[in-house]
Amino acid sequence: AQSVTQLGSHVSVSEGALVLLRCNYSSSVPPYLFWYVQYPNQGLQLLLKYTTGATLVKGINGFEAEFKKSETSFHLTKPSAHMSDAAEYFCAVSERGNNRLAFGKGNQVVVIP
Amino acid sequence: GAVVSQHPSWVICKSGTSVKIECRSLDFQATTMFWYRQFPKQSLMLMATSNEGSKATYEQGVEKDKFLINHASLTLSTLTVTSAHPEDSSFYICSARVGLAGLYNEQFFGPGTRLTVL
Question: Of B1, B41, B104, which has the smallest distance from its Cβ to A32's Cβ?
Fold first, then answer.
């Protein structure tokens, strides 16, 4: 079964600094990989996804992530943090041929002015 | 993108009562809907997968008699928490997807329903 590891439940970053959220996955078949953002008391919004093709994926709000098969990683980055980036971020994996999403524990991002 | 709604957005009920939560795909037909549960400060845990017109598939450890799922149409799935107790208090989120299994099809998430059982 697929699984996701996100380390560091809380991540503090200064406004204007690099945002880096790490995600490592486990999957027995080539995966689909996702990053979602959740604001308080709301559902999930898709930031970006990797399915096939280019391993560097660009998403909304200036975020991007790179699929590295050799490292089983899909880390999320944003060059310059904005106050509006304060939210919970979840990495998720879905195996091809399987509809089910497995989520990591999430990272609560705090942006310091 | 596709829109998924949930109703109600929050509900408070007494212990022992049943609560029904609706999940609707507003501008597309969803062949599959998923129900997740999220405890405070924790991740989403898949409870069950429901395909239109067939019985839901529950994840291990989820009581099917307690969490009744009905997917009667391509735009509506309902989750009924029967005889709710305080430990059932949680944030319930649904998602919907269209397309065939085996192909990539994005899940679109609803805004969630906050259930508080007194």
Answer: B104
At B100 the pLDDT is 59
Instruction: Give the nearest chain B residue to A98 (CA atoms).
Output: B102
pLDDT reported for residue B1 = 66
- Amino acid at residue number B81: V
CB A83 within 8 A of CB A113: yes
Query: Average pLDDT in the A27-43 region?
Result: 88
Place of tokens 């259930």: B115
Mutate to test the interface with A, among B25, B35, B57, B109 (most CBs of A within 10 A): B109
Query: Is B83 strand, coil or helix?
Result: coil
- Preceding peptide of A113 cis, ω within 30°: no
- The shortest C-alpha distance from B50 to chain A (Å) reads 11
Nearest Cα to Cα of residue A46 among A94, A95, A98, A96: A94
The nearest alpha carbon in chain B to A36 belongs to B109
- A58-97 per-position pLDDT tens digit: 999 999 999 999 999 999 999 999 999 999 999 999 877 6
What is the average per-residue pLDDT within B39-63? 88
Chain B CB contacts of A46 under 8 Å are 1, 106
What is the structure's pLDDT at B3? Answer: 87
Cβ of A80: how many Cβ atoms within 10 Å? 12
Q: Does B111 touch chain A (CB under 8 A)?
A: yes
Which residues is B69 bridged to in the sheet? B79
